[in-house]
Design brief:
homodimer, alpha/beta, Rossmann fold, 2 domains, six-stranded mixed sheet, four-stranded parallel sheet, 13 helices, 46% helix, 15% strand
Chain lengths: 313, 313
């Protein structure tokens, strides 16, 4: 069942004791630079440094006690794994995380630091899925997919809901798109909260599967995409694509140079640390491929997990 | 006249239309690391990236229309100059800024970007003061000192006032100390808002004039201090010192290594950009020279102006 605004409101209640209500920041320099009135919803300041905590937390706390006791599991090497591990630890249940053996040690450490029980596998999708399947059967744990999951989509939608509660008269909301969990949740929250609300997605030019899928009317997965926005490498899912087709006005692609320039500008002027995937949403305004002059624009800054030793400037 | 809590409340009303009400952030990793419950008052997210805007704005909007028409002036190469320029631009009056000819171009550009009218002089205190005096006489502009000014102290105190409105049951507030404007405003707000509220200052070991002045019972200026916390190079003033003597429990010195480690930890975990001077306040908890275990500790993060090309790690 496609999530509704009611599901998102329920998710907001469910995660309220555990998640941060993140601030909405404004910045005069950014407004001047892009020619719009920008409201930054700071999911980089969310627990685990990413919006992913919202969806994972909603999934974990949606389980019955009997289900929860058997734990949760997923395969992921990124923010979703860390988010699921933390949400599970909060509920006092195990989180089984399948990670490719070649995942960066910083990501392994993050998941382990939140108490996730890691199983390493060969770095192929087949190995990841078969390993996850085995763990699921052995433990009875509930699978929580990073984006193709109604509970996750509802959880991710709570960021836009909070943003609209704080700034009800927005004209547009921009979110980045990878697998589409954040974008589909955002688009449901926005278009149901206020009829006619525009939702636009930012996507790296170098990983433009959502852009091409919207053009084609069917899911066209990315093949080995390479972009600095490493949170947006995944392709749309069967659950997220139809929601996005129905509710998102357009996908705007952003160049690598535009991602880096937007990221640095936000660091320098707004004094917050955003990861390249967040900068993709800012990049939609930055590159001015579409005309949003003078509008009130909400931007979901998806996360802030960056290796400070390897900055792109 | 020493400012009172009433003056600070008036300042808060006066600057409200112009300044950000900055968020108060919490971070579980930081709490665990330092063993206290920490509330970060994010003046790094203030306009011009520093608390300095509060004091400058209060001074500018305290002027009568006749005074204001003649403008404001100061000598400063740092955040205060940028803050005064912006506040003056908001009121539509000139800001005359005396800067040493060898000031970094990034600082010159910041002040010029906010519309400040810069006069360069030789890089000596004598040249700065005589140049400022000449401009004051020529223009009739009001001098706004960076910290030794009641209006400035009252403005700086509004950050602590907001923090206490948001988190009334704090046990301690920690602020960094340079010239003492922020610290004296903070200490008035805190100790008058709630009797018995503890106020502690963080100061770089390498620029420990406030520490030594408190020991000696008289102002002992720093001589050529060298610390990464370049916002804290100035020494206490005649107005700030007695307030600090009366209301601040103690000055805790922080090593350069502690400043850098605290700064990096906040960037990595809290995802906000703080400058070394802010990290000095965090460093008081980080280095654990004094026992604040289990307490609710408010920290004034003073600013976030950092050259992203020259990070200390």
């Amino acid at each position: 069942m496609t999530p509704t605004l009611h599901d998102i409101r329920m998710a907001a209640q469910r995660i309220k004791p555990y998640a941060h209500r993140t601030p909405v920041l404004t910045n005069a320099s950014l407004n001047q630079q892009v020619g719009a009135q920008v409201f930054l919803k700071c999911e980089n300041l969310q627990k685990v440094g990413a919006f992913k905590f919202r969806g994972a937390c909603n999934a974990v706390y949606s389980l019955s006690d009997a289900e929860a006791a058997r734990g949760v599991c997923t395969h992921s090497s990124g923010n979703h794994a860390a988010a699921l591990a933390l949400a599970a630890r909060m509920r006092g249940i195990p989180a089984y995380i399948v990670m490719p053996s070649n995942a960066p040690s910083v990501k392994k450490n993050a998941v382990a630091g939140y108490g996730g029980l890691i199983t390493f596998c060969e770095p192929t999708l087949e190995a990841r899925e078969s390993t996850l399947d085995r763990i699921r059967i052995e433990t009875g744990a509930s699978v929580v997919h990073p984006y193709n999951d109604e509970r996750v989509i509802s959880g991710q939608g709570t960021a836009a809901l909070e943003l609209l509660e704080d700034v009800p008269d927005l004209d547009v909301i921009i979110a980045p798109v990878g697998g589409g969990g954040l974008l589909s949740g955002t688009s449901i929250a926005a278009t149901e909260f206020k009829k006619g609300m525009r939702v636009i997605a930012g996507e790296p030019e170098m990983a433009d599967d959502a852009f091409r899928s919207m053009q084609a009317g069917e899911i066209i997965p990315s093949v080995n995409p390479k972009t600095i926005a490493d949170g947006l490498l995944t392709s749309l899912g069967a659950l997220t694509f139809p929601i996005i087709q129905q509710r998102v006005e357009q996908i705007v692609t952003v160049s690598e140079a535009g991602i880096i320039a937007s990221m640095k500008f936000v660091w320098e002027r707004a004094k917050i640390i955003i990861e390249p995937s967040s900068a993709v949403a800012v990049g939609v305004l930055w590159e001015k491929k579409i005309d949003l002059r003078g509008l009130k624009v909400g931007i979901i800054l998806s996360g802030g997990n960056v290796d400070l030793e390897k900055l792109p400037w």
